[in-house]
Amino acid sequence: MQDEERLVERAKQRDQEAFAQLYEEYFDRIYRYIVFKIGDEMEAEDMTQQVFLKALRSISSFRWKGVSFSAWLFRIAHNQVVDYLRRKAKRIAVPINESIVSGGEDPQKVTEQRADIEQVLAAAKHLTRAQREVISLRFAGDLSVAEVAKAMGRSVGAVKALQHSAVVALRKAMSY
Amino acid sequence: MGKTKEIDNILDECLERLIKGGETIEQCLVRYPEQAVELRPLLETALVTKKVSNIKPRPEFRSRARYQFQAALQETPARRGFFTFVWPAWATVVAIVLALLLSGGGTVALAADSMPDEPLYSVKIATEQVRLAFTFSEIGKADLNARFADRRVAEITAIANRAEPKDLDRATELLNKHLEKVAVLAETWVNEEEASMLRVPTPAPQLAPTSPTAPEPEPAPTPAPSPSPAAPPAPTSPPTDEKGQEDMEVAVDGQLARLRMEVERNAVRHPAALREMLETAPESAKPALRRALAITEDRYWQALEAVDGKHWGK
Predict the structure, then answer these.
(1) Pairs of CB atoms within 8 A across A/B
(2) Which domain holds residue A128?
(3) Judging by beta carbons within 10 Å of its beta carbon (0-12, 13-18, 19+), is residue B129 exposed, middle or buried?
């Protein structure tokens, strides 16, 4: 974490190498988070780029007061997603493309992974907005409960409770 | 309440061990035998959910995005010393525009004419992305995307006889994205404008609508004089109580009218150029050309429909 703080401070001074390291660290996680939220990998590509360009433009205004860098970055991604969903009220669900599912060279494994991911995405539609946000940040964004709490502006206890109820709801949705 | 809190904590601890620590479900359950019955199905669900971490960006997207981000990074001035000068947003935009216009001997200028099968093409695309990133209005972004789509068609027709199919595919994909953006951005902008118009109280006397699809509470008893072709399009519900609002709408309509003109012109020109190229292109280029043709035929139509949602004066 200390390393990340140093990196962020350097990035705030427009140190290109530091920003590039943060980019590499978070790129996949932000992309995954957006795919999980919108279910459209092509749109997610554009939005992921926008998140990092926005972060680049506004990194100088980032302050550590109670917010980690990951929480700040995922909040930018969250706002992008909200804007997108507001615009595309009548969006069409797109099946996940196998090209974005990692499963090594084994095509059968890739197909199975894709089926599982689609099942999760379908089940996630049954969650409340807050539950879905917790699951997106925790499982797709790979954040700890403490980081999720900061990103969502809630207490750690509240996030744990949401996580629990979300997993129960997912279980129920996947059973049908 | 205490029990619920306890299970929240236990589940979280098990998830950490399961997902990050690599423990198995059985190992987790051994720690909490009293909660095992409740925990097992939840942990099994969590393991399936964790498979979303197998979603990875496509390698070609990853490298394109990285390149574009690096280009944007390099456009960002480095800070120096204690007395750091923070550029205001407008200055950044001006700097980029100047860099684009004045870098006569620079890479950006060299890249401007590059084709998809040339090394500097990525710089050209990255430069376009930066321009889009620093264009803040949706209608402005739509306009830029329409112009970039024009470039893509020019590139496709220029290299169809010599390029590898993958280079044509690349330009075709970009063309598809640009045109999709034109439609989405125009539609979004139009919807927001219409929503804001609906919030304005409508005065009683109105001009007859110029669009046949405009909502009409009652048929007009007498036909109103049509506006001249050069006149700005008349909105269905003008907020006539505010002159400034009217002027702004006329200016905004001008932007939209220009976008429409560009889209309408290219909706004819681009498919025609691609069809002509299809007749002489080598077989290897034809699949990409056919796809590009289908894209221009579909997407321009969608873009026109999106624009016409607002364009009362058509």
Answers:
(1) 142
(2) 105-176
(3) buried
Check: CB of residue B124 under 8 Å from CB of residue B112. Answer: yes
Testing the interface with B: which of A120, A132, A147, A162 to mutate, by most B Cβ within 10 A?
A120
CA distance A23 to B139: 29
Tokens of A107: 């095509």
SS3 B213: coil
pLDDT in tens, B43-86: 999 988 988 888 888 888 888 888 888 888 877 665 543 333 34
Distance CA B199, CA B194 (A): 9
Q: What is the mean pLDDT of chain B?
A: 72
Lowest-confidence range among A14-23, B22-31, B226-235? Answer: B226-235
- Is residue B230 helix, strand or coil? coil
- Cβ contact A142–B53 (<8 Å): yes
Q: Per the CB < 8 Å rule, is B49 touching A139?
A: yes
**ipTM at complex level:** 0.81
3-state secondary structure of A130: helix
Q: Which of B41, B65, B92 is closest, CB to CB, to A48?
A: B65
A68 and A126, same structural domain? no
CATH number (domain holding residue A49)? 1.10.1740.10
Check residue A125 and report its DSSP letter: T
In sequence order, what are the beta bridge partners of B55?
A101
Q: Which residue is closest to B187 within chain A, CA to CA?
A: A87
Window 64-83 of B, Cβ < 8 Å to A: 65-66, 68-70, 72-74, 76-79
Same domain, A74 and A12: yes
C-alpha distances in Å from residue A81, one per residue of A47, A49, A149, B80, B174: 8, 13, 19, 35, 22
Q: Note whether residue A124 is domain-resident.
A: yes
Backbone phi, psi, residue B55, to 5°: -75, 125
